[in-house]
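Apologies for my clumsy wording, but could you write out the amino acids of a protein and the C-alpha cells describing how it folds?
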Amino acid sequence: MGVLDNLEPKSVFHFFEEITQIPHGSNNVQMISDYLVKFAKDRNLEYIQDETRNVIIFGEASEGYEDREPIILQGHMDMVAVHDADYDIDMATQPLKPVTDGDKIWAEGTSLGGDDGIAVAYCLALLDSKTIPHPRLEVVITTNEETGMDGAFAIDLSPLKGRKLINIDSETEGVLLTSCAGGARFYATLPVSKVSRSGMLYDIEVSGLLGGHSGTEIIKEHGNANILLGRILAAVSDKNDISLVSINGGVADNAIPVNAKATIVVPEDTSKEAALKAVKDLEAIVKSELEIKDPGVKFTVTAREKGTFDCLDNASMKNVYKLILSLPNGIQAMSASVPGLVETSLNLGVIVSSDNEVTLEYAVRSSVDSSKDALLDRLVYITEAFGAKAKITSSYPGWPFKSDSKLREHMIEVFKRMYGREPRIEALHAGVECGLFGQKLEGLDCISIGPDMEGVHTTSEKLSVASAARTFEYLCEVLK
C-alpha cells in the first residue's frame, strides 16, 4: 500500500507518489525522464526523448474524437529539491517521504515537488486511462524549468500538430493564467584575497524565515536570509576586528532563502562580547522590522574552536557585504495596468563562497522586457564597479496576453458550467514556459492552470488533495 493509495482520483495520486520515489531535483532528471519513457513503452505509446531529457508522449484520440484538433498538455519534470537543515537526506539519490492527513499532502523534512509533479501525474493518468474521453494528446514534459527553463529552450516542437496548449504549472485553483513575466538569471562573482588569522571561530546563522517562490511570493516581502547576513557582517565589522572565513546561503535563485551562514574569526585581542552584542542588537531591530512579515526570524551565534584559519582579508570582506547590500533586491516596480501585480523584481537566492571568490546568484523577473533589461544593466554596472564579474544567463521572454483566445473562451465556459461561476483571469509575476513555446509554435493559444499549493520551493510545501481532484476533474471536462 502506498501512502496516497486511499486518495481520489486513485490514478493521479498513484502516479504522483511514484514520482516522489524518484529523485528529480533540477539537473538531476535522468531517472525521472527514463521513468516517463518506460511508461510510454509499457503502453505502446509513441514518444520522443531528446538529448536534454525532455519527453514528449503522444496519446491517440478516444473513439469519436479522431477528427478533433490535438491538445498539448505541458508541465516540467524537475522540482526545487530542498530539505530542512537538520533533516538527513541526500535528495540526489534518496526518495521523498510523502505524508497526508487526507486534506493536504507534504513531504517529511523536504519540499514535495507538487510543482510540478502534479502536472506529470495528471498527464500520466490521462494517458493511462481507457475511459476518459479526449482528443489526441501531445504531452510535453520538460527538464530543468526551475533553473532556467533549459528544456523549453532546447526542445524541438516541430512534431506537434496542436496549437492549443494547457500548461499545468500554476498554483491556485479557479484561476486561468493568461500571461506571465519574463526573466533571467544573474551572477555576480567577486574575487577575494586570503590571509591567515588566529582566534576563535564562530558560525553566525540566519534562520526561521518563511521563504517562498521568488515570483509568486515576492509580493509578501518575506525576509531574505542572504541580505540579512550581509547586514550582520556590516554591523559586526563596523566596530569590531573580525575576519570572514566563508559565507553561504540559499538553495536556488528562484527561492527566497530561509537560511544563510557566515563563519568568522574573532582575534584574541578583540572583545567577543562586543561582537556578539552587535549580532543581538541587529536581531532585535530585524525582528521589529519583520514582526508581521516574518515573525520567526532568528540569528544564532555558535562558538566552534580556537586556531589559525584562512580568511578573507579586510578589503575583500568589506567588498562582499557591501556588494550584497548595494545590489537591489525584492520588488522594484508594481504594474500600472494590473492592480496588485508585481511588474519587476529580483531575488538574491544563493550565495556561494570558494577559495578565491564569492558568487551571488539572482533570479530577475519583469513583465516589461525593457524594464528587465534596464534592471540587468543596473546589476552589471554595480557589479563591475566592485571589480566583480557579471554574467547573465537563461534570459527568457514573457508570455503576452492573447486578446482572441478560443481556448480561454472554452475553458471559461466549461468552468461556468461546472461551478456556476466564472474563473479568475490573471497574469502572473512568476515565469512559466508558455512564452518560449509561443515563440516556437506560431499561433499558439495557451492557458495555465493548477490546483492549490502553498509553500512551493520550500520544506513547507503542501498540495491540497481536494483541489487536486477538482482540477483534474475540470481538466478532463475541458478535454471532453
Notes: The two ends are 32 Å apart (CA to CA). The longest helix spans residues 272-289.
